[in-house]
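Fold these two proteins, one after the other.
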Amino acid sequence: MLLIVGLGNPGTQYQNTRHNIGFRVIDRLVSDSGANEISKNAFKGELFKSSNLLFLKPTTYMNLSGESVQAVKNFYKIELEDIIVVHDDIDLPFSALRFKKGGGHGGHNGLRSIDAMVGKEYLRVRMGVDKPAYKSQVADYVLHDFSQEEEVILDAWIEHTATAIKVLKTESLVEVKSKYSLKSFQK
């Protein structure tokens, strides 16, 4: 069983924000796979299943994402190496895509929560959202919608990321990094 987690915040006011790019990728994967919702209150998130794949959107708000991941991990007895977390990354330029096993949270509250609850050695799908001019602006920046210019390529970038995640089931991380990593998305 593979657990693919997309990070974001619940609520329509956050739907199109940079912080919710993980949710948008999960929405695409759920749609593409025809997964069925199997959510339970105990999971603290929206959970979907298709074959041997689970797709999770924690509804705990970002800083408590680990509670949802831990609940699903324990219920389905999923190993840490079978968890993929898709998240926004301000340390990468907009539309960059990177894959990383383990490592630090880089100040990302969702990753910090997951690291504390289940450990660090899961696969991270890092989606670059760029960063504001000043560090003090980070919270506001990630909770704002993408610009109109960014929205133009967002759908294709999300599709590219979803394809890379699907390929992770059959190809090695090294192969996926080689084929799907992006400095920035070019249509």
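Now the second one:
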Amino acid sequence: MGILIGVFSVAVFMDWRFYRIPNACIAAGMVNGMILTYMSFSWTGLVCALGALAVLFLVFYPFYLMGALGAGDVKLFMMMGCFHPLMQKDGLLHYMLVTMALAAVSSALKMAVYPECRERLFYLARYIRKAVVTGAVDTYEVDRTQTRCVVRLSIPAFLSLLLMGAGIYH
């Protein structure tokens, strides 16, 4: 767990500071997760960890393609799949649910504090209404210079990991 927290700490710092999570950081976490899994569960655990990694990629990569998630977020979730000893039974599912709940709370707080985040939400509501009523679907380009509205999933993912490590949930 210490290695995972260390790797996550670096990932959160890099994401917060530079809006990027280095591949070397993710690779270090994945390799350590696979080694830990192999040492604890032999080949069976390693196959399960690789399966979790593949499923997480297949689930979250389309969200990256749509622009809903960053590549670093997808890679962080894949890295968590490599740590099979921590994710036994429904651990990975619980981890993802807690992470997404924390991200939702973070998003709601940002909307309460920053007017530009509320503006985006109102635009989305008008867009959906227009699409439902008229059937017209326009393209919408997000202003990437407004970073206040971005929810970095590395922070909720890290908080979720700390809650799991503290035994708040399994």
